[in-house]
Amino acid sequence: MNQLRQHHTQLIKEQAKLLGFDFCGVSKATFLEEEAPRLEKWLNNNYHGAMTYMENHFDKRLDPRLLVDDAKSVVSLLYNYYPEEKLSENEEDYKISKYAYGMDYHFVIKDKLKQLLDFIQENIGEVGGRAFVDSAPVMDKAWAKKSGLGWVGKNANLINKGHGSFFFIAELIIDLELEPDGPVKDFCGTCKRCVEACPTEAIVEPYVVNGSKCISYFTIELKDAIPIEMKGKFDNWMFGCDVCQDVCPWNRFSKPHKEPLFNLHPDLKDFTNKDWEEITTEVFNQVFKKSPVKRTKLEGLKRNIDFIGWNDKK
């Protein structure tokens, strides 16, 4: 039985690599005991702000067996999105988070997960399961950590010792027993660069992020007006923010991804601040047709640009 488990685990990991995933790890589908009090405290502190969906399905977030009947294993996967080409190296230019340079990762990774699940069913047998890409109450970083793909750093991102943190995390929760991997050590040490660099002081203490103070929250999640006290603190980020990852020493090991669909949209390469300020509905729909930026809609993007107040700086 043990050998069969190992064989199945190896088979899945090899196929994951063929599909373009950089890392694949396995953990036993059990209740996340360590995470339960942390999540409860985080919600009680209202660190989720207007993201009220975070309050839903508390039990499901902590127990994958409530998401998939008779779940036995959580297969965690990492997919690199670190770009070879940056949007701009000029500090005065408007910025969008690197994960939003190309096509929406939900489309790209969901398709690969479906292929992986199909492969498991074709090569191992009748296996039930579900694929998750940041689209259901699954604590992806906790599972990736449990399966040894990295540790959760002081900026609350998953960090891989050899490759940094610019990864999308995905899961397959399946009713097949596999050989679990163990967690790895936390290598943050005494470093506090992310804590000190956060423009809005959203990292309230090491390993705890007040989501409702994060630039990504203000520019993507928040639909109301951005609080005036945040004026001048956005460092020209108009969609998302990469500051806590950019300053992380482990990201000196980040390597450019090999996924053409995540490449910087060609139309964005020559965008000036003036182009951003004058962006039309037609251009927005054309450039961001299948991009994560579509989430904020044109009105949201314009609100963010107005808030950054480039014109005030001239």
Automatic annotation (TrEMBL):
Subcellular location: Cytoplasm
UniProt: [4Fe-4S] cluster 1 binding residues: C188, C191, C194, C248
Pathway: tRNA modification; tRNA-queuosine biosynthesis
A Pfam family assignment: Fer4_16
Catalytic activity: epoxyqueuosine(34) in tRNA + AH2 = queuosine(34) in tRNA + A + H2O
List of catalytic residues: D134 (proton donor)
One example GO MF annotation: epoxyqueuosine reductase activity
Binding residue positions for cob(II)alamin: R61, D134, N155, L158, I169, S216, C241, D242
Needed co-factor(s): [4Fe-4S] cluster; cob(II)alamin
Top-rank EC class of the record's enzyme: oxidoreductase
Protein's name in the database: Epoxyqueuosine reductase
Alphabetized UniProt keyword annotations: 4Fe-4S, Cobalamin, Cobalt, Cytoplasm, Iron, Iron-sulfur, Metal-binding, Oxidoreductase, Queuosine biosynthesis, tRNA processing
Cofactor note: Binds 2 [4Fe-4S] clusters per monomer.
Matching PANTHER family: EPOXYQUEUOSINE REDUCTASE (PTHR30002)
